[in-house]
Structures are given as structure tokens and as C-alpha cells.
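PROTEIN–LIGAND DATA SHEET

This sheet pairs a single protein chain with one bound small molecule, calcium ion, given as SMILES. Inputs appear in the order they were entered. The predicted three-dimensional arrangement of chain and ligand is reported afterwards as a C-alpha cell string under its own label.
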Amino acid sequence: MITGNPAKVFILSPATDKGGTYASKVLDAETASLWGELNWVASVPEGASLAFETRSGNSKDPGESWSKWSAAMPKPGKVTSPAARYLQWRVKMGGTASGDSAVIQEAEIVYQSLNRPPRIETLQVGDSAGSSESSSSNSTSKSNGAASKSGSTASKSSSSESSSSSAQKDSIPLSWKAEDPNGDTLVYRLEYRRVQETLWKEIEKDLKAAKHSWDVSNLPDGKYEVRLTASDRLANPPGQVGEDSCQSEPILLDKTAPEVAEWTGQKVEGNTFDVRVLVRDKTSRLTAVEVILDGRVDERLSLLPEDGILDSIEETFQVHIGDLAAGEHSISLLAEDEEGNAGAGYLLFTVP
Ligand SMILES: [Ca+2]
Ligand SMILES: [Ca+2]
Ligand SMILES: [Ca+2]
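PREDICTION REPORTED AS:
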């Protein structure tokens, strides 16, 4: 059902002048409007005359930008002045020879606001509050490495494993602000595409609320864009519907934890231990890599990669530990990506 903007009416104050021309004040329809019927009831004595004229414009005071006065309307009918926000009318009355003139009892002009399209002001993808509630999917892979004998006769055995946890949600909150100049009820459509794709795919349509939880559980890691379209079609007939669209900045979807990919060059020499480790994320930059010796979480150390800067999805680190007592030791490596997904690796070794 179309619940369009209802037509409104200006009631014109009757002119009581005896003859001559009477001009109204400027009427303000508040938004650009289409002018309809001008109707009046008047008593016109034999020999007297009466005719209305109108003009319209979009400035408060009639000026250059306004239309010219319309042709005289001796009878009620449709206003011919162009659609605009403001209208003025005047009435020309001719008297009889005996000095009688017309008397207008009532007059009115019907007008209807023109539809104007909605306007999207903001579109937010993700939570601004940054509460990253995790729905974690844990996976553990284990690989038992053979003991490295290089440079040492002492290292008896070592083993390593890695695990990961995902910090990114399975859904991303979308919210927006949109307005309609006519106050029309708006409906929204949401779409997405991977960056570099051309076709948009629907997330949801016919939304009335200005927010939606976007289910991304089935989407692979990557960069995505979201498009919002607002329509006032519920309040306007087809052909007069207004729309506005807005596209988000590309957002990174990374649901996969970094992986401690490879331990190499393990070497025990006296009371020191050296190892080189490769850490890799599939999608986003590594942002933190820390090492923990023998489970002493309070003494965790941040590691800098060999190239001195944590700036890519893959980095290698040199781990050097001194002052080790004889016996079994372990190091845990914790790695985080841009989205806060955390992966861990574990290596066991022995100092003779
Ligand atoms: Ca509208
Ligand atoms: Ca990742
Ligand atoms: Ca680097």
C-alpha cells in the first residue's frame, strides 16, 4: 500500500477590497510542492468580474527566480505555476457601474510535497566499541621433529607443536544513519563483494531497522566491501521512488590464526640454545610474536623479526636463550595477526 505524502490545503483569506487588485502574502509549503486545484466560492454581482493569478518560486521573497504571474483564472481550476516551495496569488476584481464588486467567501489551493530521495549519512562496518567477543575455533597440529645434532652432541631430543585460536566473530555488526527529507519510512538493502569482484551479492533486503548482523561464517578470509541502499518506496508510487546508496571502505576479514610454520637450526651449545622459526599468516600482517621459556608466562619476551620490522604476513625470528640449566626445557611461541587471531607453537629441547 502506498501511504504517500497526503495533499495539503492553503485556506486563502478572503479579499474584501472593493475592486482593484489584492495580492496575498507568500505561502510557504515548506518543501518543493506540486500545485493542484485552486477553488473559491464568491458572489459576483451582474457586471462585476473576478480572476485569480498565481506565481511560484523557491526563494522566500518573489524575485527574478520566480515564475511570471499565470494567465488570469476567471473560474476555479488547476494552478499552472511550476512546482516550487513558495506560492503567491492575487485576485483582480472589476466593479459594476454602481460600485458593487465581487465578494469571495472562501478560497483554497491544494498542493502536494514532491518526493525527495533519502540520504545516507553514515555506514559503519564492525563494532566501534571494539568488543571483540570471540567465537573461537581451535585447531591443533602436531609434528614431532627429529633432534637436531648440528653443532652439538648434547641435544638428545626435541619436539614441537602448534595451536591457534580465532578472535574474529562469525558475524560483523553493520549500522547506519539515513534520513528522508519528506519523513518517509525507509527500507534498506545490504550487499557485499570481495574487492576486485564486480558483482554485488545480497546480504539482506527489506530491512526496516538501521542495523544488521552480517553472517560471515561461510566467507573465506579476504578484503570485502559492503553497499547499503536506502529506498522510500513504501511511501511513494512507482516512478517517484527515491534511493541513496553508500559503499564502505574495504574491510579485512581474517578468521584464521597465524601458524608457527617451521623450526630450523636448533642448536644447544654449552648452556645456550638457538633456533630459527618461521611464522606465517594467510591473510593479515603479524602484529605480535612473543616467546615464553619453560612456561614462565610472566617473563614472556617480544620478538623482533630478522628483518627488524613486523610488517608482513610472514616473518622469521632468531631465538637465542642463555643461562640454561641442564635438563629439559620448552619454549612456546605466541603469534597474533591484525585481527587478533592468536596462534601458538611449542618446542621441547634438552640441555645436557
Ligand atoms: Ca522521500
Ligand atoms: Ca589471520
Ligand atoms: Ca618484516
